[in-house]
Amino acid sequence: MYRNAPGAEREPDRAKHQVNGGPDANKIRTPVEMTDELLERFFKGDTRALSRIITRVENRTPDSLSLLQELFAHSGKAQILGITGSPGAGKSTLVDRLAQAYRQRGNMLAIVAIDPSSPFTGGAILGDRIRMQTQGIDPGVYIRSMATRGHLGGLATATADVVTVLDAAGKNPIMVETVGVGQDEIDIVKLADVSVVVLVPGMGDDVQALKAGIMEIGDIFVINKCDRPGVDKMERAVLATLSLAHRADGWEPPVVKTVATEGRGIDELVETIGRCYSFLQNSPSRVQKKQEAARQRLVTLLEERLLKTTVQHVFPNGEFNNVVGQIADRKQDPYSIVDAIIQKLRFK
Amino acid sequence: MYRNAPGAEREPDRAKHQVNGGPDANKIRTPVEMTDELLERFFKGDTRALSRIITRVENRTPDSLSLLQELFAHSGKAQILGITGSPGAGKSTLVDRLAQAYRQRGNMLAIVAIDPSSPFTGGAILGDRIRMQTQGIDPGVYIRSMATRGHLGGLATATADVVTVLDAAGKNPIMVETVGVGQDEIDIVKLADVSVVVLVPGMGDDVQALKAGIMEIGDIFVINKCDRPGVDKMERAVLATLSLAHRADGWEPPVVKTVATEGRGIDELVETIGRCYSFLQNSPSRVQKKQEAARQRLVTLLEERLLKTTVQHVFPNGEFNNVVGQIADRKQDPYSIVDAIIQKLRFK
Question: pTM, whole model, 2 decimals?
Answer without folding.
Answer: 0.71
